[in-house]
Design goal:
The complex is a heterodimer of chains A (155) and B (305). With 155 residues, chain A is mainly beta. Helices cover 13% and strands 38% of the residues of chain A. Chain A folds into 2 domains: 98 residues, Aspartate carbamoyltransferase regulatory subunit, N-terminal domain (Alpha-Beta Plaits, 2-Layer Sandwich); 50 residues, Aspartate carbamoyltransferase regulatory subunit, C-terminal domain (SH3 type barrels), CATH 2.30.30.20. In chain A, a hairpin with a 5-residue loop joins strand 9 and strand 10. Chain B is globular. The chains are: A mainly beta (155), B alpha/beta (305).
Chain lengths: 155, 305
């Protein structure tokens, strides 16, 4: 069992130092890359989707060399990948493992669902308070309307 | 408690204690409406969307206190027509005035303005979102007629889905152990986000489609207009339009202390024969708006504490 796991891991090569984001829903891998601003990342970035997973059926994984995230950064991805785990690698060894958490506030990355909200008409950044972490409901600081999981669009 | 330089965007920006302070001050202004205490101040009224009633009420309040007024009453006369951003308009007018009163068709515009302005903002309506000064004048009217804000049975009637005055007033009354009676067509029920506020405060609300049913229960009936354009199918509108009209004979079973409020303008949802009934309070309610706005201007500009 343990060996099988290792072999699967190695489908994507190991990194010496950095962060592995595991258990991402396959369809969200590219969104995670965008949310974390990794599209123009200058160091090694490995990614895979549709890997077999016992827990999730299919999953995605991203390995970011030489990059360590602060919780506020990483919690943003909880909106699209609430199941994601974060593994910190130093010298090829796992030094820390943690689960992402839905943040209290969501800034800049989500579009307000209300077409008449000022954020959709003025050059400005969006800002939401997360009012329901289970169902994932965000209340816009400006128009005060709720953007729910099903109508969430990422900027 | 100082409200000096504080913007009023949403009714929840002010604490319940601050609401009461405004109501108390408004009583003073009702006793003596003309006091030239704002002579040194310039008040800007920016109406990106026309609203004669609200604008004149604010301008009357400011004038009675001796303030100088600048502003516009429709967007056609502004640089917005030339494509200027709201950010730039607000920043510029911040330089010319001590306080900005604004109405804008976009929801959230007033909150955004308060972030870019160097002077306090009073929201006089941002789309379907908030209209806090209406709420304060409603609170004032209710306290004045009932002698209290606590433990009242309040019926809200009509368009509870889009009616922002209803949303703000419900939120404000969540502080006062209120029982809410919500009367509306199926399609225009109070949104779940507002009902959530009621539930959060562990208060009760009851929903009805029949207006007559709530009349004997209510201390206050808050009527609103049902707008035709809210219905995607005009037949649905025809079906409900006459069932939410308050008529004089319906008041026979009402409590003696009942008062009928309406944010105005009314179309046909309160029959004319109700006007002569002492329970009709909507015209006095509008007058109360001037005193409440005087209280707000004076406290935000720091002239009274």
């Amino acid at each position: 069992m343990a060996q099988k796991e290792i072999r699967k891991e190695l489908k994507v090569s190991a990194i010496e130092n950095g962060t592995v984001i595991d258990h991402i829903p396959s369809q969200s891998v590219f969104q995670v890359i965008r949310i974390l601003n990794l599209t123009e990342y200058p160091n090694q970035l490995l990614l895979a989707t549709n890997l077999e997973s016992q827990k999730m059926g299919k999953k995605g994984i991203i390995k970011v060399s030489n990059r360590f995230f602060v919780p506020e950064e990483i919690n943003k991805i909880a909106l699209v990948a609430p199941s994601a785990t974060l593994i910190v690698i130093r010298d090829f060894n796992v030094t820390e493992k943690k689960q992402v958490k839905i943040p209290d506030k969501v800034e800049k990355i989500v579009k307000c669902f209300n077409p008449n909200c000022i954020t959709n008409h003025e050059e400005m950044e969006t800002f939401f308070n997360v009012i329901d972490k289970k169902e994932l409901k965000l209340r816009c600081k400006y128009c005060e309307k709720i953007t729910a999981k099903d109508n969430m669009v990422f900027i | 408690m100082s409200m000096k330089n504080k913007s009023l965007i949403s009714i929840t920006d002010f604490t319940p204690e601050e609401h009461i302070r405004i109501l108390d001050l408004a009583e003073d202004f009702e006793r003596q409406p003309t006091q030239r205490i704002l002579e040194e101040f310039v008040v800007a009224t920016l109406f990106f969307e026309p609203s004669t009633r609200t604008r004149l009420s604010f301008e009357s309040a400011a004038s009675r206190l001796g303030a100088q007024l600048i502003g516009f009453s429709e967007p056609a006369s502004t640089s917005l027509q030339k494509g200027e951003s709201l950010r730039d308009t607000i920043r510029t007018i911040s330089n010319y005035s001590d306080i900005i009163i604004m109405r804008h068709p976009r929801e959230g515009s007033a909150r955004f303005a308060s972030e870019v302005a160097s002077v306090p903002i009073i929201n006089a309506g941002d789309g379907a979102n908030q209209h806090p000064t209406q709420t304060l004048l409603d609170l004032y009217s209710i306290r004045k007629t009932q002698g209290r804000l606590d433990n009242l049975e309040i019926a809200f009637v009509g368009d509870l889905k889009y009616g922002r005055t209803v949303h703000s007033l419900v939120m404000a009354f969540c502080n006062y152990n209120t029982t809410f009676h919500l009367v509306s067509p199926e399609a225009l029920k109070l949104p779940s986000s507002v009902k959530m506020h009621i539930k959060d405060k562990k208060l009760s609300y009851y929903q009805y489609t029949d207006l007559q049913e709530v009349v004997p229960k209510a201390d206050i009936i808050y009527m609103t207009r049902i707008q035709k354009e809210r219905f995607s199918d005009p037949i649905d509108y025809e079906k409900v339009k006459n069932s939410y009209v308050l008529r004089k004979q319906m008041l026979d079973q009402a409590k003696e202390n009942l008062k009928i409020l309406h944010p105005l303008p009314r179309v046909n949802e309160i029959a004319i024969d109700v006007d002569s009934n002492p329970m009709a309070y909507y015209f006095t309610q509008a007058l109360n708006g001037v005193f409440v706005r005087q209280a707000l201007l004076a406290s935000i500009l720091g002239v009274v504490a």
